[in-house]
Specification:
The complex is a heterodimer of chains A (154) and B (182). Chain A has 7 helices and 4 strands. With 154 residues, chain A is mainly α. In chain A, the strands form 2 sheets. Chain A has a two-stranded antiparallel ribbon with strand order 1-2. The longest helix of chain A has 37 residues. Chain B is mainly α. Chain B is 78% helix and 0% strand. In chain B, helix 2 packs across helix 4 and helix 3 packs across helix 4. The radius of gyration of chain B is 19 Å and the shape is globular. In chain B, 38% of the residues are buried. The chains are: A mainly alpha (154), B mainly alpha (182). Chains A and B meet through helix 2, helix 4 and helix 5 of A and helix 2, helix 3, helix 6, helix 7 and helix 9 of B.
Amino acid sequence: MLRCKAINFLFFILPLKCWQDFLISSHIQKCPSCQKKLASIEEVKPFLIEESEAGSIEGVWPEIKKKLNQEKRKKPRSLWFRLKWAFGIASFLIAAAAGIWFYRTLALDKTYLKENLVERFQINYIRIENKPARAFLFQPHDSEMIVVWAEKNI
Amino acid sequence: MDDKQLIKNCLEGEVDEFRKILDKYRWKAMSLALNILGNQEDAEDACQDAFINTYLNLGKFDFKKSFSNWFYSILYNRCLDYLRKRRRFYKFFKMAKSDSFRSDNTNNSNSFELRSVIKGTLKELSPKERTVLFLWAKEGYKSEEIASVMKCSSSTARVHLFKARRKIKAKLEKENASMQGD
């Protein structure tokens, strides 16, 4: 009984359907005391409106027929139509994937070039007035430009 | 003649063939719609729309599945649409503060509405709970079939059914207690 109360408490404390279903299948469906708190089919039936109580909709058939004649039945799409769409979508996806791949490859190449610019730039020696000079290399931030600064050795 | 044969005939033949399907399901459809909507006029309109939608979409019907499930699913969605419409309608009139209209409207309510008010139970249940209860008690559906009609998971259908059954039982116990008290 205490367990049933705890289960009921847990049922209301967390209103998640999967959690509530777990409690129902793990305990409530098997527990005779909890089952007593549920209405049976015989108890439920009187609460529902019977077919015999429901008014007939026989009179609406002419109206339905009129509407049905007005509106054509939606035909299922033909195989050719579906294939055409499938081919179109597949082509678009392939083109998009190729575009993304191409763009990414180009972008990667650009970064590689930028990162290795200074390493690849090489000056063996600079001479000013026929004498070896001091050389400095600068690369401004976020730029592909390289500045070479040469000073006379005094 | 079974449902699938009727549909095949209907797909090949004339509109009149559809009448057989309508004749077979009209009572059950009205009963379900009335249980969800609780109003004769709305139920009739919802049934009419559901039958028209069913006919127009017969070509999309999957012959591997049950026709009744498919039809109930269309009807259930139509009923939900009507409930949404009605909610908007009452919201509008509440905003307009038209008390006279509301009193007229309640006076004109039909026998089903009065009946359910007298019973005082159906209105306490949510439309989903009413649908679940109808399919379970009247049609003998299992949670998987209910789930396919309501387009939800079977665990959700089980939870709705559990809550509805518990509410009905609580109501019955309350009535019994009050009768014993009197």
